[in-house]
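Exercise 7.
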Amino acid sequence: LALTDYATMERAAANPAGHFEHVILVDPPTSARAAELVAAAREDWDEPGAGEGAPGFLHPSWTEAELPFSLQALAERFPTRNGVGRIYRALREAGEASGVELREALAGGGAHPLAPETAARSFRVLRELDLVSGEPNRGDGAVGVVSSEGTDLERSAAFRAYSDELSETQQYLERRKQP
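Solution. The predicted structure, written as tokens, is:
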């Protein structure tokens, strides 16, 4: 059993048909590339003798009702103005942060922590804008705020790229129909 997501499959260009007899799609594909991987798995299983072992089965289990949740979950993977601001404020309040204090600040403070990937992307934006210094080193480093000047997040190439990727993925999901 392997639990994965479309982003991991895309990075690895992994076709699940060669490794598993049953693949259950819990979420809708988030990009054309992910949908291509699913289509390739279907083709491999439909072709006698292809892949390893017996033909497999692809089980889409998501419906249109899951799309709003998928869109929300997807948006939480990318740095937003709110998320970047939460991390900046938490780091500013912490001063020079390290250890547990740094990990808490990078999670954005509050009852609903940011995912580690989102926190790392948000930190990249803050560093690119010269608002912070230091190295998080997976929460074991030391980081501090070096500027309290207001700035436009759009000045960050990383923030623009993340925003574009999120927008593309949202548009793709909104156009999707259940297979």
